[in-house]
Input
Amino acid sequence: MGLNGRRLSAVEIFDQLNATGGRHGIGRADIVENRLVGMKSRGVYETPAGTIIRRAHQALESICLDKYTMRYKDFIAVKYAELVYNGLWFCQLREALDAFVRTTQRQRHRHRAPQAVQGQRDHGRPQEPAQPLPRRLRLVRRGGCL
Output
């Protein structure tokens, strides 16, 4: 792993991102939460490195995931957060969600990134036409993705 062309450990990356992001006011959150017991609670949190890494991850997801996967990921992220926040770490649903994520991550790493993402696309060559919808639907039945 690295940052700005330098090879660093994860802790060193977090330290540098915290320092840089903190100087610029990144990662500050002043929120009112609805606690499990029914009361409201105000919290002020600061996590510059976490915010920077999360935003970078979201940017990568926006170019790698299709809209259906993104919508589902956003939906289950809220459910996952609720389970953890409510102290249900050891419930079967949280364990099932973790297993689902592990499975999808293994499948994602088996496939190569699109050429445009890798920077190998030949811009002088005409692009293949988009597949008509019926062909795309046949691919879905065989386990492909839209």
About this structure: Residues 66-118 form one domain. The radius of gyration is 20 Å.
